[in-house]
Write a structure and sequence with these properties.
This protein has one helix at 73-78, and strands at 24-29, 33-34, 37-45, 51-58, 61-63, 68-70, 89-95, 102-112, 117-127. By secondary structure, it is mostly beta strands. The protein has one domain: Immunoglobulin-like.
């Protein structure tokens, strides 16, 4: 018996994922050990409007980070149509000089213009 493959002139339809209700992203750096003024960078997007606030959290408290948005075009190819594209990235620095030495929790808090908040990318860093 020979099976014939069927062909269709209909385009393949790939379903779009359902919109996410909270902002999402990642804190790429820092990881591991930090000291003094340390560069921080990552990315942030929202399916519900733009990102209105990006905060770096140290032990659950917001710290001064002097962040600004930067180009991350590759992310916008993966997540097309988001309000913050093509500047989906952020970078800046955090001064760990006055933070007590030892292990601390570092995380990212994102707030969208719709008021949704997400705390993500939590990790432990060692302050030297």
């Amino acid at each position: 018996m020979i099976l014939a493959a069927s062909c269709s002139s209909e385009p393949t339809r790939i379903p779009l994922p359902a919109p996410v209700s909270k902002p999402y992203g990642w804190l790429d750096r820092p990881t591991g050990t930090v000291q003094g003024k340390t560069r921080v960078f990552g990315w942030a997007l929202s399916d519900q409007g733009a990102i209105s606030r990006i905060e770096i959290l140290l032990d659950s408290k917001s710290v001064a980070a002097d962040l600004h948005r930067v180009f991350r075009g590759g992310l916008c190819a993966t997540y097309p149509g988001r309000a913050d594209c093509p500047n989906a990235g952020f970078q800046g620095q955090v001064d760990f000089a006055l933070v007590p030495k030892g292990a601390h929790r570092l995380a990212l808090r994102l707030t969208s213009t719709s008021g949704a908040v997400a705390e993500i990318a939590e990790r432990t860093v060692a302050v030297e």
